[in-house]
């Protein structure tokens, strides 16, 4: 496990929760996660949940099933990124890009995440594109922020094409440069 990366993720998450608390008096809220069980839920509203991050519940968890399914080695940072904590997705900006940092909500979500990563990698392999592993979604369903599995760089990529732009040299630097966005519900 990359300790520097897990500290960067923890620091961003702490900043995220803190800014929600400062601006709303409440923990982060999500309508997308309403009705989906998670140890992160601290309170439920009319059609939203308030959440706080929790330690990842599966000791020694990795994305090895993804690697095995495609017979590739994955960048070690991607294992750390998805197995450090349970949390809701977190809205942020990276320079001029607004994004939702993908997180694992519960153990079932971890299984779904692995299936989605496998599907993403299979599509890339079929299109003869270098392998990437998504870490954030954008408003545009055609673009996403991913980690290049060859270099470890964080890139903005257009789904199903060779169109890519390097955003950061690695995931730790990327997380350290994120700015929290708070969007209160209700």
From TrEMBL:
Membrane topology designation: Peripheral membrane protein
GO CC terms of this entry: cytoplasmic side of plasma membrane
Keyword Cell membrane appears in the UniProt entry: yes
A Pfam family this chain is assigned to: Syd
Predominant localisation class: membrane
Keyword Hydrolase annotated: no
InterPro entries: Syd, Syd_sf
Keyword terms of this UniProt record: Cell inner membrane, Cell membrane, Membrane
Cellular compartment(s): Cell inner membrane
Protein family per UniProt: Belongs to the Syd family.
HAMAP family referenced in this protein's UniProt entry, alphabetically: Syd
Functional summary from the UniProt entry: Interacts with the SecY protein in vivo. May bind preferentially to an uncomplexed state of SecY, thus functioning either as a chelating agent for excess SecY in the cell or as a regulatory factor that negatively controls the translocase function.
Protein name: Protein Syd
């Amino acid at each position: 496990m990359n300790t520097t990366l897990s500290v960067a993720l923890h620091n961003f998450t702490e900043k995220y929760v803190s800014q929600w608390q400062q601006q709303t008096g409440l923990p982060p809220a999500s309508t997308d996660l309403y009705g989906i069980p998670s140890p992160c839920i601290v309170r439920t509203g009319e059609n939203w949940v308030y959440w706080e991050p929790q330690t990842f519940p599966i000791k020694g968890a990795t994305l090895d099933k993804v690697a095995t399914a495609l017979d590739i080695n994955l960048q070690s940072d991607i294992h750390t990124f998805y197995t450090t904590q349970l949390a809701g997705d977190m809205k942020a900006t990276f320079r001029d890009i607004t994004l939702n940092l993908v997180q694992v909500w519960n153990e079932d979500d971890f299984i779904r995440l692995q299936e989605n990563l496998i599907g993403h990698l299979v599509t890339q392999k079929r299109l003869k594109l270098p392998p990437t592993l998504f870490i954030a979604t954008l408003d545009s369903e055609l673009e996403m922020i991913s980690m290049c599995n060859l270099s470890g760089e964080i890139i903005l990529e257009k789904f199903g094409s060779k169109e890519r732009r390097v955003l950061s040299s690695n995931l730790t630097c990327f997380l350290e440069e994120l700015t929290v966005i708070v969007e209160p519900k209700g």
